[in-house]
């Protein structure tokens, strides 16, 4: 009864574990699928991706891989929807996972957004470091969209840090990827920033060139939204080059395209400053007064500086001095506020990091307690089940062994006897086959020997009646002087053909096989090969072929290297004899 109860408990526990695992796996699959869909949606509809991410489960309920991707996508959606990112905590989760992951693309995106965050937090050194790390992580990935954005933002930061030359290099790299993407708006955005970099660096001709390229490219777009900005930048370039007439013409064209006040303010300010430098004070005052931007202290500082210049040119020195004083005070205020903001941000980060650390410690303690209790319960249950089944299995096996021992021994003896008989029979058959095989091999060897003897005799007889043997005998009888003067020993074309036929017969179609393997061989080459095959020495070949020793050597070298493709260390004679 106790055994049945224990079995029922084990079955229920196993079923519950299986159901929990199935539910967990199904939920994990659904979350993974949702995150991948959000990632695909991010490029076309970042606002929709942001809304979906806000309704996802809490990041603490996800696995590490899901936490990392969720954290990355959440931050990416914030940047794409122009929502300020106030903390790097989510990106730190993604960074901790992707640092040791083989997923280079997500690692690169994480490092890129960390660079963005630190740039916006005015921690420029950290931002530059993360841009560099993102660039290293992206070396083995093919994603032109990422590489364009990386180099574009990296160049902007380098330019702001007065590293203009390096910034321009990054703009050039970004341009290569923008061309590969074939995205006109990205190219226009690039030319605007690239040209501005040259403008603030005092390279007005280069800036003017880039703005004009952008303006030409903008003409191919439907809305031409970049025209007003590019025209204004061209106007600034012309103003810096003291070409005020062209600057005024360009800013007027830009004003004709602007629609709302946010677009008109900087254009009015630019036109006012152009007119001020042209000494048209009334018109300059009119346009400068229209630029009423005061929501940003930097704009107010620029207005105070311009007003000071205007009043100085109007010989109103007290007012000029007053505006200069305001300008200086505002610069001090901006610096102080910036310093205080940095201190407050650092305090917030410190407080937040403390809270995060405490939360992590509490979470780790709860997880450890839960894991410990679960592990203890599972261990006790596992030990009990294993012990029960082990005891029962041991008893069953012992009983079976005792019952089957005698039967097994009897069966083994019978099998041994049968196998012994079969082995003797097999040995007898093997001996018979070996004897028959030895006899057959002996007969075949005898036949082969007889055939080889007959073949050699036949070849000798055939060669003995050939013209080449007669001429060899004639050569052997002649003196050296007679060999040189006599023409009777020289092989004619017909005799060379006859020699090739005889060699073909005697040596298993030698010339046919040689011609098939080396189709570029000539009849003269075949004749030379035939003479080598029957062992004619080089000295006798000179008289049979009526050539000089140098010519024979050249023919052999040409045959060996050019027509047969043999190496320098290979022997032509050995090859022909064995062929």
TrEMBL record:
Keywords: Coiled coil, Membrane, Transmembrane, Transmembrane helix. The chain crosses the membrane at residues 369-389. Residues 391-429 form a coiled coil. InterPro entries: TPR-like_helical_dom_sf. The keyword Transmembrane helix applies. It comes from the Bacteria. It comes from Phocaeicola coprocola. This is Tetratricopeptide repeat protein.
């Amino acid at each position: 009864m106790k055994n049945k109860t224990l079995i029922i408990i084990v079955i229920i526990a196993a079923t519950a574990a299986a159901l929990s695992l199935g539910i967990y796996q199904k939920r994990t699959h659904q979350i993974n699928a949702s995150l991948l869909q959000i990632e695909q949606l991010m490029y076309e509809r970042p606002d929709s991706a942001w809304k979906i991410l806000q309704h996802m489960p809490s990041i603490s309920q996800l696995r590490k891989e899901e936490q990392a991707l969720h954290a990355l996508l959440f931050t990416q959606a914030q940047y794409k929807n122009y929502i300020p990112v106030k903390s790097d905590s989510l990106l730190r989760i993604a960074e901790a996972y992707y640092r040791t992951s083989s997923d280079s693309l997500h690692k690169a995106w994480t490092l890129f957004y960390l660079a963005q965050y630190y740039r916006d937090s005015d921690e420029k050194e950290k931002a530059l470091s993360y841009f560099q790390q993102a660039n290293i992580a992206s070396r083995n990935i093919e994603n032109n969209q990422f590489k364009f954005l990386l180099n574009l933002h990296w160049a902007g930061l380098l330019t702001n840090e007065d590293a203009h030359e390096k910034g321009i290099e990054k703009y050039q790299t970004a341009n290569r990827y923008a061309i590969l993407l074939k995205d006109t708006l990205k190219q226009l955005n690039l030319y605007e920033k690239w040209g501005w970099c040259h403008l603030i660096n005092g390279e007005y001709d280069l800036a003017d060139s880039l703005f004009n390229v952008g303006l030409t490219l903008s003409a191919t777009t439907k809305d031409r939204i970049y025209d007003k900005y590019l025209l204004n930048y061209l106007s600034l370039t012309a103003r810096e080059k003291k070409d005020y007439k062209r600057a005024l013409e360009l800013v007027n064209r830009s004003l004709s395209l602007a629609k709302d006040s946010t677009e008109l303010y900087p254009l009015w300010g630019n036109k006012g400053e152009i007119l001020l430098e042209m000494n048209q004070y009334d018109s300059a005052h009119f346009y400068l007064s229209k630029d009423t931007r005061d929501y940003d202290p930097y704009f107010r500082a620029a207005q105070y500086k311009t007003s000071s210049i205007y009043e100085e040119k109007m010989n109103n020195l007290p007012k000029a001095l007053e505006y200069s004083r305001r300008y200086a005070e505002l610069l001090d205020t901006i610096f102080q506020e910036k310093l205080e903001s940095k201190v407050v941000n650092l305090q917030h980060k410190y407080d937040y990091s403390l809270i995060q650390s405490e939360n992590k410690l509490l979470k780790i303690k709860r997880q450890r307690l839960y894991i410990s209790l679960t592990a203890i319960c599972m261990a006790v249950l596992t030990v009990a089940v294993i012990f029960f089944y082990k005891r029962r299995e041991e008893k069953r096996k012992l009983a079976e062994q005792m019952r089957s021992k005698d039967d097994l021994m009897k069966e083994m003896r019978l099998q041994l006897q049968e196998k012994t008989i079969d082995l003797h029979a097999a040995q007898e058959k093997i001996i018979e086959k070996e004897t028959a095989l030895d006899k057959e091999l002996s007969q075949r060897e005898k036949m082969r020997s007889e055939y080889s003897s007959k073949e050699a005799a036949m070849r000798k007889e055939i060669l003995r009646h050939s013209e080449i043997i007669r001429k060899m005998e004639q050569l052997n009888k002649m003196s050296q002087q007679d060999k040189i003067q006599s023409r009777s020993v020289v092989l004619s074309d017909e005799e060379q053909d006859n020699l090739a036929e005889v060699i073909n017969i005697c040596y298993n179609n030698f010339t046919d096989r040689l011609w098939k393997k080396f189709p570029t061989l000539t009849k003269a080459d075949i004749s030379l090969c035939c003479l080598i095959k029957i062992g004619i020495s080089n000295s006798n070949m000179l008289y049979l072929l009526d050539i000089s020793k140098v010519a024979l050597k050249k023919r052999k070298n040409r045959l060996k290297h050019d027509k047969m493709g043999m190496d320098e260390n290979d022997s032509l004679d050995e090859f022909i004899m064995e062929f």
